[in-house]
Amino acid sequence: MESLERLAGLLRRHATVEGLQRTAIPGVSVVRSGALTMPMPVVYEPTLCLIAQGRKQVMLGTTAYVYHPAKYLIASVDLPVTGSVIEASEEAPYLSLVLDLDMAELSDLALRHPLADEADAAPSSGIVLNDTTPALLDAAVRLVGLLDTPDDIEALSPLVVREILYRLLTCPGNGLVRQMAKANSRLNQIARAIAWLREHYNEPFRIDDLADIAGMGRSTFHAHFKAVTSMSPLEFRTQLRLQEARRLMVAEAMDAAGAGYRVGYESPSQFSRDYARMFGMPPAKDAGRLRGSAETAAR
């Protein structure tokens, strides 16, 4: 409890703006929210999310993951999710530490510290929740505490980050992290296909081509892809397309037809149907609402 209070105090001091804020420590961000937030789509890259105060819900497909100070979240591959802060107030804001997971460091640690009963199991969901341990929390406090002594960051932050990765690898129930660390694991085979989809989401593709990229047979690939992402490859691509279309309309003021075409839709009506299904309203109306909210917040 003392370590959790110390982490919350550090985050309260260094998370000076609403939302995600990069820090001087490479790969480390802090998050603050003084209010509940609407569900917002985002792509989670391989990440540790450790909450010091508040509560958040992430939807991957139709599966909800709720995490809080007693449970941290690991995202193992690039995943399009919808996230919302579900417990926060100005007096007790949502406070979180986000650490990008370094695959090279994880792999080196897994080689140096193998588990006796380690096996390459079939991948489960690409997101896992696990218990926050005192050792992990203590390391997180020391990592964020380096923001108070910036001259120490270059020398000490790699050591503390490596300790955190070691804690993740050796925590009971973290088989997913072990799979992330193994280059030839089923999870990393799926990750190769996901990386290709993220780069080519606006192009047509065949499932057989994705299976070849992953080095799997078609049926095996489809089963493992859905286990990791909770979606089929086509559903995954649709989410990527719609998230990018929304960004284009809000950030670059592109019209709905142009945004749909840019992300790979040939039919404006199909784009509108898919968009309304995901975001709850037609594209132009949703984009106008979001632009209006941003302008109001800026005043």
TrEMBL record:
SMART domains: HTH_ARAC (SM00342). PROSITE patterns: HTH_ARAC_FAMILY_2. Transmembrane segments: none annotated. It comes from the Bacteria. Keywords: Transcription, Transcription regulation. Residues 191-289 form the HTH araC/xylS-type domain. It holds the Pfam family HTH_18. This is AraC family transcriptional regulator.
